[in-house]
Amino acid sequence: MEDEYNNGFGPITEKRGQRAQTFAAILMLVVLVFAFQLSQNGYDEVTKWLLCAAAAIWGEVIKNFCIFVEEMFHLRKRYNGSIKKAFKACFSHPNWTGYLIVAVICLWPWKTYKSSFYTLCFQHTLVQICLVPLISYLLGLKKATPAELSEINEAATKNVADGLARSFYYGYLKLILPSLLETINLSDNEVDGYAVRDHIVDHKLFIVMPKDCKCTTNFADVDPNIQFVTEAQQKILSRAGNQRRVYKNSIYKVNSLIHGEFYCLMEYATPLLSMDAMQADPRCSFTEEDRDQQVVLFYKLLKEILDKDEQCKGKYHLVLTSNARADLADVIGSEILKSRLSP
Asked: What is the model's pTM?
């Protein structure tokens, strides 16, 4: 059903939650309770478990310290000579209170009891601390999975979609949307005996986003029922050394066999052209799967950014479509009707 609602674009993914951490905590408690029930000497078993847990945590610290040694050779170029910055890059959000508690757990059995049992446990713990994480690191077992990298990129907004969405907003939409109504009202080119502004039924900019990022020069190349009519009133701004730069929007006549005839301001989301070019360029290592993931993120981020701008809110409508399709006029007609019903 979601494919149908999004005109074949496909589902819009949701932001990941904390379910993985919650499940890990529940699973840990279940394992501890189950193991405690099976143990013959509960106190000794608990001690061993604490030592194993401490070994795992401090093993990660040692692994990060190995990474820190490498970063020390890049202090000047990567961290402006700051050891503190290099340390933070290797130990992200350290919980020193937790590390101190773990250290006490490690030393408590050794200091309190000198029996061979605790000596053996402590020796095994040292082996776990030093060898297990280092072997895992050398074998590449500590590398993040594609799913983890995806979550990191989404959380840190460090991906292709984020850069393109923010550039599209700050470099274009933020400049034209606040004054869009004025632009339409000043568009007095005559069409069929009336000023073109009188034909426009919805005073929004319709931004089309095809899933495959294929953006044609003219919408008529996709569907002949969509025809270019004229240009809206130009907006002229001087920016970044470019004097009297012209910003303009195109007005199209949409003849939908289902929904009737409409005039509207419409264009593709131009940053999608960059994604399409990146996917076609082998030097970018940007696969079709990457493109499909990033175009969904682009839509989500752009919508979130625009919805938070009171000057842009209600002056745009994002149109999701599947790959280039012959019935685009019907899709646009449906979206125009949907837009007129929404605030």
From this structure: 0.65
